[in-house]
Structure formats: structure tokens, C-alpha cells
Fold these 2 entries.
Entry 1:
Amino acid sequence: MPKKKMYDQGKVFAGLAIFVGLLIFPFLLNLGKAAPAPELKLSDKAKAAKECVESKAYMTAEHMQLLNEWRETVVRNAQRVYVNSSGKKFEMSLSNTCLDCHSEKAEFCDKCHNYAAVTPYCWDCHVDPKETM
Amino acid sequence: MNISYLYSLIAVIVLALFAYVGSKFGGGEALFGIIFPLLAGLTFTVGFIYRIVDWARSPVPFRIPTTCGQQKSLPWIESACIENPTTTAGVVVRMILEVVLFRSLFRNTTCELKEGDKLAYRWEIWLWVGALAFHYAFFTVVVRHLRFFMEPVPVCLQFLETLDGFLQIGLPGLMLSGVVLLAAAVFLFLRRILTPHVRYISLASDYFPLFLIMGIAFSGILMRYFTKVEIVNVKAFTMGLVTLQPHIPDGIGGIFYVHLFLVSVLLVYFPFSKLMHLGGIFMSPTRNLTTDTRAKRHINPWNSPVKIHTYEHYEDEFREKMVDVGLPVDKMLEAQPPEAPEAPETPEAPEAPETPEVPEKPEVPAEPEAPEAPEKKE
């Protein structure tokens, strides 16, 4: 290709600089940093119980949906007992059941939620007693 | 069946299956998760710059802005400073409105025959609505994905996500942009196949990006709301990519690789297709030129310098030979001082009034320059 003249060089290069800058900005921002997945810290009580209300895989994937169902059954149907897949019964309560074992919200809930930038609206109504103290 | 969209649909399905099956084999995860995305990103960047530079090298022969307003002329005639911008500021405003609001598409009209033979024009807004919804939804989705590439995630991204999911439907919360993106892509596709004259001009290169984006949106929605990919692992993976310490975490399903591979295909396809309008909009001379044609002369930049051989130079080169064969010359060989002032006028040599004088000239130099002339003759 014969070398041709470039028109409006200043403007074109300025535009391209912005474009490339936007593309490599996440790379520059993270230069020399590492952000591995956070490790959850289970409380002693949770460790002792070994299993949550359902299996670990189910809870990782579906906990938000489960909590949503719990809320609706409790608030709309006044039904407070949850029977899990193996027939075990639990009280449907975020504060009394979930937070009983997972007593460290900052070490358990928040770690993943912050990492994935998820802001659950549980805490719009519920409180973590430790945080309020 | 129209082969244009059939082939495009098949191509996207094959690509998706390729990624789904390929990622299951040994080494497939590294190939689809690390090598392809990085190569695609590189192709996108280099290809994009190449196209832009290529365009910047193409001269614009005339001022060709399309206008729809009164050009600036006499001071007492009101001119449209944005529709027909004569200043750079006007062009900037016009470009911003074009890029941000698709203003020229807003003016889209359609013509049809009514009552058999009456031609009627109608304002056609749905393409503009669909395009605006599609582009803004896509933009929001892309910006939202930045949360996977930053740690800690800036507050503005979290705010955007809150805004995007403000309806609080279900959990994980429904993101409006994802739904709008898929719906708008489907609408733009249906418009292409249901309107006969649009279908007539639609090619595989129109359908393919639509299917590709539908595939990306669909696989993304599938992962977020239905198959539930493990998001923390995904983020650990993307952070590995941007920190240049790539690794493959466990527990990311095949759908994720389909999603990632379709995005890689989109990135590779981007610079070589109509999707380059992302960069091209800024380079379009019908939008970004001022309409000051009456005030300023626009010289065609591809008027390359023409090699001119003027009569004056011609005569300088052949004067001696011309003199020898008795042809008239404007300037004598070593012309005498009195005749010299005539020389500057030589470019106009062919003019009639001068010619009668010239025949006499050859005789004159023959006398003083006699020693030189005979030499050349022999």
C-alpha cells in the first residue's frame, strides 16, 4: 500500500487515544495487583453443623431465591416452618436461623457480595445486631 | 426461507455449540477462556485502529455535509446553526446529538401508496425507538460488566446496578438493561424479516451480528437467572485476565464459555463489519463537516501535484535546436539586452501578436552566436 497522507491527524489520534485508553484502563488499574476470590470464614457453630439448610452447592447458587421464598411464605402466608429436602425442619428466619450460625455478616455475607458488587436489599429492613452495637 | 438469516442463525448456533462442546475437552477451558478472548481483544484493538487510520487516509473530495436547514448567507436570513452548521461549535453540537440521540434516524420517514395511487409520507419512529433502546441497553450492559474487571468496584457502578435493577423483581434482581437488550435485538430482527422492503435489502451481514448479540444476551440471562453460574469464580477468572495472571477456576459451566466465546467472536467480527459504525460515526463527512462552502474554498485533497512543463521550460530545453531549424522562439539565445524584457511573457507564447516578430529573431542571434550554432548542426 502506498503511503498516503492522513487527514486531521491530531483529531484522529486524539480519538484513538481515548479509545485505546478506555480499552486498557482496567488493565492499568489492576497493574501488579491480584484479586483472588475471597475465602469465607465460617463461625464455629456453622462448622459444627456441617451442613446448611440445604446442600452447599444448592446454597451457593440459590440462597437468594430461597430467602426470597422464605420472606414471601412468612409475610404472606404466615407459614414459618421450612422442611428441607431431607425432611429436616427449620424456622424460616434470616435473623434467627441464618444469622444464628453465620453470625459474622462481614466475614460471611459481605465478603462475596462486595467482591461481586452485589448489594442485597436484605439489610434495608433487617439488621445485623453486631453492626448496630 | 431466506438463506441470509438461515445461514446467520446456523453460524451462531454452530459457534455456540463449538464453545460448549470444546470447553469440555482437556485444555478446552484454557483455549476458550484465555487464549481466544485475549486474541479477540487484540484483534479488536488493532483492527479498529487500522480501520480508523485507513479512513483518515481517505481524502474527502468535496464538502458533503447533509443538511436540513437554511445555510448561513445574508445576515437578515435566519440560518439553522445546528441543522446546517457553519462553525465548528455547531458541528460539535450536531455530532453530539447524532451520537447520543441518533437525531438523523429520528427524522426517518416512510412512503407508501394510500387508496391505491396516492403517495403518502409518514413519520416512522419505531426504528429510532428500537435502535435507541438497543444501543443504550447494550451500553449499560457493557458498563455493568466492568464490575468483573475492577476490585474494589467503584460506587458509581454499584449505583448503576441499583438503578438498572430498581424494579426489584425476583432474586437475583432483574436487570432491565439485559431484558431490553434482548427484546430490542429481537424487534430489530423481526423488523428485518417482517417488512418486505427491509427484508429485500437485508444480507447475512445484517442478520449475523443480530443473532450473535441475541446469543450473548440470552446466554448471559441464562447464567444469571437460571443456571446460576458461580459468580465469585467468574470474577476471580476475569480478574486473572486483567491482572495478566490468567487461570481457570473450577465450577464455571459450559454456558459461560458459550457466552465468552460469542463475545470473542463479536470482538473479532467488529472491526471488519458494519459494526464499525461505532468509530465510523465520528468520521462521516456528511455529519462532521461545516457547511461553509460559500465562504471558504474547499480544495480536493487528492489533486496530486501535476507535473507541468511550461512552454518557457520547453523552449529553454530545445531553444538551440529550434533556432537551428528556423522555428520561432520567444527568447533569443543569449538574447540581446533590448529584447530581454519580453522574455517573462513567454508563457503566453502561442498568442498571435507575438508570432510575427519571432520569425525575425532567429536571424538576429545567428550573427552574434554564430560560433555555437554551426557546431550543433554538424
Entry 2:
Amino acid sequence: MNFVMPDLYPASAEIFLLVMACVLLLVDLFAGKGRRWLVYLLAQLTLAGCFGITLSTLDGQAVTTFSNMFVDDLFADFLKLVLYPAVAVVLVYGRGYLAARNLDKGEFYLLVLFATLGMMVMISASHFLTIYLGLELLALSLYALVAIDRDSARATEAAMKYFVLGAMASGLLLYGISMVYGAVGSLEIAEVGQRIALGGGNRTVLVFGLVFVVAGLAFKLGVVPFHMWIPDVYHGAPTAVTLFIGSAPKLAAFAIAMRVLVTGLAELAEHWQVMLMILSALSIALGNLAAIAQTNLKRMLAYSAISHMGFMLLGLLAGIVGGDPRFALNAYTSAMFYAIAYVLMSLGAFGMILLLSRAGFEAENIEDFKGLNKRSPWFAAIMMILMFSMAGVPFFVGFFAKFLVLQAVVAAGHLWLAVFAVMFSLVGAFYYLRVVKVMYFEAPTDTAPIEAPRDMRFLLSANGIAVALLGLLPAGVLEYSMWASYAFLVGH
Amino acid sequence: MTGIPLLSLAIWLPIVGGLLVLATGPDRNAGLARPLALAVAVAGFLVTLPLYTGFDGRTSDMQFVELASWIPRFNIHYRLGVDGISVLFILLNSFITPLVVLAGWKVIEEKAAQYMAAFLIMSGLMNGIFSALDAMLFYVFFEASLIPMYLIIGVWGGPNRVYAAFKFFLYTLLGSLLMLIALIYLFFQSGGSFNLLDWHALPIPLEAQKLLFFAFLAAFAVKVPMWPVHTWLPDAHVEAPTGGSVVLAAIMLKLGAYGFLRFSLPIAPDASHELAWLMIALSLTAVVYIGFVALVQADMKKLIAYSSISHMGFVTLGFFIFNHLGMEGALVQMISHGFISGAMFLCVGVLYDRMHSRQIADYGGVVNTMPKFAALFMFFAMANAGLPATSGFVGEFMVILGAVKFNFWVGFAAATTLILGAAYTLWMYKRVVFGAVANHHVAELSDIDAREFAVLGLLALCVLGMGLYPLPFTEVMHASVDNLLKHVAVSKL
């Protein structure tokens, strides 16, 4: 027996979070009902601590540990540095909503932290098994989170649906991974990439495995035709949970898609590019068309999420042209920028629903935003910024995200794909405009004052302003995304 | 060249001012919002004056150039500058804004601050469109200007305002999204530049030029609007509040025409020549057919909207006959139409504010109760019909001369507008203003007050001045128009 202690330093943020999650569990046990703020505060401190650790261990080096199963590179660090604030924002936005429904139990914070840990593992995974571990940790936490309101039939149904479909998707992914393993004899992503590049593995088996891997990823991203769970889960889950599902996990899903497809299976790019092309075209079309028919804002945002993920995939598939990775940096930067911009907008949009909700009232229908301009011109303006940004109208960040993806697609030579995408974003503009219409052109039916905690109002305002400011000055985030993508490409 | 970034001021002063007006908050502070908005609008106009006085009309180079890096990765710059073609539109836009603020002074009682702010912000955005020399900057301003107009129509518009606002937004967005693809394509073709002046010099094969031309056509034809994509305009005009109609007709339509001059013609000159027949055909259809359509309208605003489409047909006709008279005539027509159509919509607004009807049939004998107004309205109606000594005549006459030079029958068809324009405008005028007092509502009308008189009088002076002495307008544009025509005459294949 010779046990070598792995280098724990690259995973220090994950370890810190795990320890803190256990502490939180104990604190929750003894804190009792009156001291829930303590649990909340502890969760926020944990995220802040993770942020500090990741920031202080930031260096350009890619370090692997746990027998090359875990990697800490700039790509991972950058995504994590976006992830922590996103989760922290979720906690701030969701707190009042949960408290009003007596759902702000310790379990919520605990599950959110575990899900965050899962996402961090996914982001840092350099091994197919690590990916699977992270994915399951995230997924299991989310299933429980969706069902956290035990008495709600709708939430239970959504959780059940999510669980069954999610388990199936995990199965698909695992099956695909086993195919890849069978073909090349390794599960380490970089190693798989190298072996395939050297001609190892039976192509037929590999492509067969690839199909299942892509299907599994597509489910996690929620793109057509693996999108069925999205509208129901978004709709059924308590809005604070929807806010969580609809934001940060997209970053993690983006990260594993990059790791698996670009690092591991780049040699099969011609195959997965066609698959992604079909997936994204279908998602953009169906997401935008189906969103028109929705009267429920959560469902509308769910379909909008489908189309946004389709758009992000467009950026991902444009990286390799005929085996030539010349446009890789440009394309992956665009996809990453898109993912970050989407998380920012999604947080704001669901945050607005939480803002208008109060005890016994869910402001989840588009109707509930009627005449918001009368009730609160400031938050109506914030929502308007978010909606126009999602529609891709300048000067908001959503426009630049779309622009970056479109230029990557055109650079890769898919001019007609770009035309197709913009035509459907025109369709998309319609339903975003409808929300603006309801807020500005109609008289309010609900005149209750908006009662939300001050910290949430402040953060939501900052969120909206960030969407506008990043639209005016996108160069900074763009540079960071480019560095991260560059580090990612150099690393393998 | 002074050190003051005049163009940036022209763009950002109204926008920041508009945000300040927004900050005055609810309607109980409207007493503060209105004067503040007027002050910002007037200041916005004053800062554009040095653009004219300091303009060097002898050169076609870009002037008052400002350059700063915006998104360095994609070589996108904050690049501003004006030439003889664009400078006048910035002045026109900044001139119209205070008038619009004044026109909405009393009528807009609800959300007055937001109303004024929307106009100020839009004014700044449109100055941005006219002065952007970077294609992305142009595009960003071009699309962003849809937002305030969407709100103006939707919030303060008529009964069918939601339909009109959506139609306006989606129609224009459709065109501009196709243009976005064209811009990205050109970015790669030019080796990574969004500089418009680089693109002007870029050789492009004919097939690609044609595709680009159609992509630009999609964006600009909707905006002009050209027949057959004009149908959003009557709806938007009818539903928009008076100020919205004025800005729409006076400035927004010009954006499309300006786009032809900045993008289509210089970037795809061969395709422009190749497809000139199509553009001429569409323009003449607009002039003649829409002229007839205007004749049968029962709604005053709709009538003026169709008359706008018809007049803008003149503008696009002038561009695509490729001679000096035609193009300068078209530019003069654009400025003059800005004054006249703005004034016509204001006149209808004056009546609407009192009667809350735009139907011609509800009026008759207005002259008996509103003599001052009738006189001014008469003047603008005559200008709209192209009466000599008004600015409406100058542009139309130049374009017709140019068209006759190009081809007699094209000129002949264009000249029918002189008859049609007179027919629909004067017939409407006669039915509304002359005759016996139609009903007791008309009998109770009060004549225009000092504020309305000032707004209309100022516009009347502009129309008259430009009609009698157009030289100050045309001498600015000579060099640039010359340069553009020379550029377009050279093949880029």
C-alpha cells in the first residue's frame, strides 16, 4: 500500500465550500427558527470565501490533481468567479420570497451550496468520471430543490418529471462515456483527445458514443429536442428555485460541453458540429415560436432560455472549420460571453418576478406586470432593459452577445445559419416586446405597493444597470472571456 | 478645429439631459420637467450650430472627426464625423426637438417627464446615427432609436397604438437584422474593419454586392419607407401622438434615405447601377400610386403619411438617377420635407387637440374661427404641394430636372406629383378649412395661442427662407455630393 496524498491546493475552493456546507448543516440544527438569518449569512460568507480563495489562487498555470481528474486553469477560475456572485445573487433575490412561504429552511441554503459544489466540480473536471460526479451532485440537489415546497402538487410533479428525465439523460451520458472508454481505453479527457488524434479507437464506436454524449449534454443545456423538462420545471418550481436553475447551471453546462467536445472529442468535430447545428437551429426556432404562446412569464422565460442556449451552441460549433481550429478562440469567446450575458439577464428577469411576488401571490403571469410603469417607474425601466437586452437590441449586453456569436458563425462560413438565427430573434423580439407593452401601455390592475427587502431592490437595480453598462462598454468582460478561452485552448 | 467634441455633445447632451428629465419623477413635478426638457433641447440645438458655422464646404472630407477605441478586439471604434451630406440632418434633428417639446407642452398631461425624456433621448440617438462613421456604432444607434419611438407610440398614442407600435418595431427590426449580417460579412471581407470609409474603398464582386445591396435595401427601404414595405407608416403616424408623428416624418424617415447614401451607394456601386431600374420603378410607384392613395384618405394624418411616402419616393428617385441635380435635389427635398411634414403634422395636432378628431368629415369652415391658424396651414399646404417660393418646390424641381435628363418618361412620371400633390393637399385643406362652419364643435374652436404660433411660425420662416434662398443649404453639400457621385461612377469589381 502506498497512498500518495493528492495535491489539494488546486481544489481548495471546493474543499472550503464542502467544509462550510457541513458547518452550515450543524449551525442550522442548533440555530432554530428565529435565527435563520445566521444560516443565510453563513451561506453568503461561504460564497464570498470561495470567491476570495479562487481569486487569490488565480494564476495562469493549469494545474491538475487527483490523478489528473481535476484541473484548475484560468478557464475554470474565470467561470467560477462568475458562478459565485451568480449564486450569491440567487440567495439575495430568493430570500424574501422563501421567507414569505416559510421555505427558507436550512435545507435550501445547503442544497444550493451542494449544487454550487457540483457546478464547480463540473467546471474543473478533466475526467469523464469527474464530470459525471459533478453533474449528479448538481442534479440531485436540484431535484430536491424543485420539490422543496412539499405541499405544492405542481412542484412535486415538476420534480418528478425532472428526476425521471434527468436520470435518463445521465444514463445516456454515461452510456456514451462507456462507449468512448471502450474505444480508446481512457477516461481522462485530454488523454482521450490525444489518443483519438493519433488514430486510436474505432471511429464507428466513437461516433456512436458521441451521439449519446451529445444527447446527455443537450439535456443538461435544455436544447430541442431534449428540452421537454425545461418549461415544466421552470413553471413548477418555486420561483426562487427557478431563478437558480435558470442561471448558474448554464455556466457549468457550458464548461462541460467545452471540456468534452473541444478538449476530448475535437477530432470528431465534423460530427458533433452537425449535431449541434441541428440542435441549435431547432432550439432557436422552437424556443422562440413556443414562447409567443405563453401567458405565464416563467414558461415564457423557459422557452426563451431554450432559444438562448441554442444561440450559445451556435458560438460553440463555429470554432473548428474543416478540422482547422483557426477561429476557435473567437468562437469560444463568443459562446462564453453569451453564457455570462445570459446568466446576468436571466437573474434579473426572474428577480423581477420575485420582486413583484409577495406572501400568497405569485407574480408569474405576464398580466401581473400590467402597468408596472405606474407602480414603479424605476423597476419598470429595469425590466424593460432586461427584456430589450434579451431581445438583442442595443445598447444592452444581449445585443453584443448576439453580435459576437453571429460574427463567429459568419467567420466559420455558415452565413445562412446566421440569417436563420436573426430571423428567429425577430420572432423572439415579439414576446419580449409584449412584456414591455404590458408594463408601459396598460393600466395597472394590481396596485399593491412593492414590498421587497432593501438589499434585493438594490441588487436588482444594480443587475439592470449592469446589463445596460456592459452593453455600453462590453470590452472588459470580452477581454476576460478571451483570456479564459485562450488559456483553455493552450491548456490542451 | 476646436477642441470641443461637438458631435459627442450633440449626441450625449440630449441623452443625459433626457435622463435628468426622467429623474424629475412623477407628474406632480411636471412643472419642473417641462422647462428642463426645453432647456436641454434648446441647448442641444445650440451646440450643433458651430457644426454649420465651422463647416468647410469646399472639401468632401469628414469634419469634426472624433476617434476613440470602443471594442478593440473587433476593431470597433467610437468614430464620429460629418460631411456635407450628414451635417444638415444633425441640425435639422436638433432644430425639430425643441419644437416637439413645445408642441407637447400642454397636451401631454400624463407622464410628461417620460414623454419629454423619450424625445430628448431619441434626438441624441439620431444625431448618433447621422454622425457615426463606424458601421457598428451606426447600427447600434440605428436600432436603439427604435426603443423610444416604440414607447412614444405605445404609451401616448391613439386607440390602436399597441398594434401600431408593434408593427413599427418589428418591421424596422426585420430590416436592420439583415443589415447586421451584411455588416459582419463586410467586416470579414475588409480584413477586420468596421470603418465605413475603408468599406467605401473595398472591392467586392458583383454577386456579393447584390446581396449586400438587398440586405441594406431591407433595412433602409423599410425605414424610408418605400413601396411596398410602407404599410407600417400610416399606422404609426395615425396612432402616434403629434410629437411622435413630427419626429417620425421629419427625421426618422430620413435615416433610411441617409443609409442609402452612406452604405448602399458607396459600398455597392455596381449593384446600385445594376439595380437602379428596380429602385426607380419602386420610387415612381411610390410617387404616383401612393399619390392616388393619399387622395382618397378620410383621415388627415393618414393623408399626410401617404403624402410623406410619396415625397420620399422623390428622394430615392433622386439618388438612383445618378446625376448631380437629382442627388442634390433629393437632399434638399429631405430637409424641406423635414420642415413641411413636421409642420403639417403639427397643424393636424393643433386641430386634434381641440376637436379630438382627425377625420376630414368632422371639419369644415375652420377659417371662420381660427383665421391665424388657417393662414399658416394654408402656407404649409401650399409648400406640401410644391408651390414655387417654398422649399417644397426647390427639391422637387431639381429632382424632376435631373430625372428628365436621365430619361424623359421617368421625369414625366415624377412630374405628375405636382398635380397629385396639389390635388390631395389642397382638396383636404379646402374641406377642412373653407366652407360654412360644419358643426357647433368647429364654431367653438379657439385660435392658436402664442406657443403654437411660435412653433408654426418658426417652421414657416424656414420653409419660406429655404424656398427663396436655398444656397446656404446647397453650398454645404456640393463637394460631398460631387465626391459621392464620382465614387459611385467608378466600378469596384
